Amino acid sequence: MSQILYEVTDRVAVITLNRPEVANAQTMELLDDLDAAWTRAADDDDVRVIVLRGNGRHFSSGHDLKGTGPRPDKITLESIYSVEARRYIEYTLRWRNIPKPSIAAVQGKCIAGGLMLCWPCDLIVAAENAEFSDPVVRLGIGGVEYHGHTWEFGPRKAKEILFTGRGVTAAEAEQLGMVNRVVPLAELDASAMELAGQIAQMHPFALRQAKRAVNQTLDVQGFYAAIQSVFDTHTTGHGNAFSVCNYPILIDYEEMKKQVKAQ
Fold first, then answer.
1. What are the residues whose beta carbons fall under 8 Å from the beta carbon of 190, sequence distance 6 or more?
2. Which of 88, 95, 126, 202 is the most buried (most CB within 10 A)?
3. Residues 104 and 49: beta-carbon distance below 8 Å
């Protein structure tokens, strides 16, 4: 079964996370396929708007600690940095800057790495049951790799959410300005598609310029530099997590998965 589904309807590309049996947890393969889907939509002149959604009860439970596919026998901070710089920073910033409007449709849990999928989108439509959280401080890490927290929540609320690991409801996320609309769960997909349809009527060049204007304004305020610099800080958190969980700096990957699962 494909981990990513892709279809185009009425100038709207719909990208679907398709691992509902594990709450759309993200393997490296899923992220690679997701990046390919974003690129496909960006390169298709018939696509004006992109909608990202998740099959099943939850949008995404974050990184899949089990993972699939080949992995190195040993892991170091250097190897972690290399993998995460590509898939968690290079990918997300590319998705953010694709010159077409994008909408995330979020239901159920959106945990840690799940935030890295919806935050790069221009708009977020959330079901009433959506809950956003980043509890990785409990693992000895200061926050998920794409550190949009300060921009999405504001500095003091970002600290509260990180310090406590608590979830943010859809209603609170809308109050904070992170979510554009909150709708009943049964109306989530239809609402996202309706919004996408409205946007798709606009001139594509004007949409591109409007998006570029807002993103550049954020970048002038420091967004891009902050994402890059905080990611470098984030990597040191892995070393702390190793220590907290009694990991040596050089560890066996399978053993790491067993110990993290046991926490």
1. none
2. 126
3. no
Tokens for 150?
């300060």
pLDDT tens sequence across 209-230: 999 999 999 999 999 999 988 8
**Residue numbers of the domain that contains 251:** 4-262
* C-beta separation of 153 from 172 below 8 A: no
CA gap 106, 129 in Å, rounded: 9
DSSP, res 119: T
Checking if the pLDDT of 104 tops 90, the result is yes
CA 44 → CA 48, 113, 184, 246, distances in Å? 9, 27, 32, 48
CATH number of 184's domain? 3.90.226.10
Task: Give the chain's domain count.
Answer: 1
Beta strand 123-127 pairing with 102-106: parallel
